[in-house]
């Protein structure tokens, strides 16, 4: 490649085009492409690489606990999961509207996998996503330096197009957790989409949060425009374990 062209591409920050230009030049010569066809291919290379890098940044910013995909989910294991409903969520339309989503069911049925997989699909569609377990939320908002960090933390929770709060119900939350969770839900209400997963029935959220009025207020807003996906069945993680033998009556 001409050195002046390389330098100019660097100045213009067209690294994607620079990385494929030599290949495109060879292709143009070999296939007799005209100037317009060559330019179109070269510019598309730059666009493709920029979009890929942007996606990588969004996925990194989402801070998923694990890399999950819908293709990697075994829908055949649990017939209670509506595959069409899950893939409809993966289109990201609920983020555009915006609507909330609750995945609820016992441990091990795939709630976290689906939440992260749907979040990844939403990120692929150009939306910002933030994944946090309820433990992350509590740890960050209950920090000793909260007075100085509260605004920064809340901005992060409120700015993303989709906020995923995972693992509601694993254990009872510390005092005042309900206040902080309510602030997040209230300020995102009808503005940004929120997804939660829970292994506890909704009627137990008051006990879980330790604040019945706060839990009621949270659910009142969160469920107003929410898609609720109820998942039943046994744990996928325990699928290979033999069932315990039943005692035989004498």
UniProtKB/TrEMBL annotation:
Domain AAA+ ATPase: 97-232
InterPro entries xref list: AAA+_ATPase (IPR003593), DNAC/IstB-like (IPR028350), IstB (IPR047661), IstB_ATP-bd (IPR002611), P-loop_NTPase (IPR027417)
GO biological process, one term: DNA replication
Similarity comment: family membership: Belongs to the IS21/IS1162 putative ATP-binding protein family.
High-level lineage: Bacteria, Pseudomonadati, Verrucomicrobiota, Opitutia, Puniceicoccales
Family annotation (SMART domains): AAA
Domain of life: Bacteria
Record's keyword annotation contains Phosphoprotein: no
GO molecular function: ATP binding
CDD domains (alphabetical): AAA (cd00009)
Keywords assigned by UniProt, alphabetized: ATP-binding, Nucleotide-binding
Pfam families according to UniProt: IstB_IS21 (PF01695)
This protein's record includes keyword Nucleus: no
Name by which UniProt lists this protein: ATP-binding protein
């Amino acid at each position: 490649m001409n050195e002046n062209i390389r330098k100019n591409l660097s100045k213009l920050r067209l690294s994607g085009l620079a990385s494929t230009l030599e290949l495109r030049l060879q292709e143009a010569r070999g296939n007799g492409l005209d100037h317009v066809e060559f330019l179109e291919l070269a510019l598309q290379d730059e666009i493709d690489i920029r979009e890929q890098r942007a996606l990588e940044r969004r996925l990194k910013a989402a801070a998923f606990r694990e890399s999950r995909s819908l293709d990697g989910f075994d829908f055949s294991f649990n017939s209670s999961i509506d595959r069409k409903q899950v893939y409809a969520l993966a289109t990201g339309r609920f983020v555009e509207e915006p609507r909330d989503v609750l995945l609820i069911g016992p441990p091990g049925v795939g709630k976290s996998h689906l939440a992260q997989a749907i979040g990844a699909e939403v990120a692929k569609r150009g939306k910002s996503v933030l994944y946090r377990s309820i433990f992350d939320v509590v740890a960050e908002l209950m920090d000793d330096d909260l007075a100085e960090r509260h605004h920064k933390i809340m901005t992060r929770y409120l700015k993303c197009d989709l906020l995923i709060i995972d693992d509601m119900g694993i254990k009872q939350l510390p005092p005042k957790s309900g206040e902080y969770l309510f602030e997040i839900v209230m300020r995102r209400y009808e503005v940004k989409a929120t997804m939660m997963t829970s292994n506890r029935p909704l009627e137990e959220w008051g006990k879980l949060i330790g604040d019945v009025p706060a839990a009621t207020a949270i659910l009142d807003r969160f469920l107003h425009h929410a898609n609720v996906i109820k998942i039943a069945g046994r744990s996928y993680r325990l699928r290979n374990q033999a069932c315990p033998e039943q005692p035989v009556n004498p």
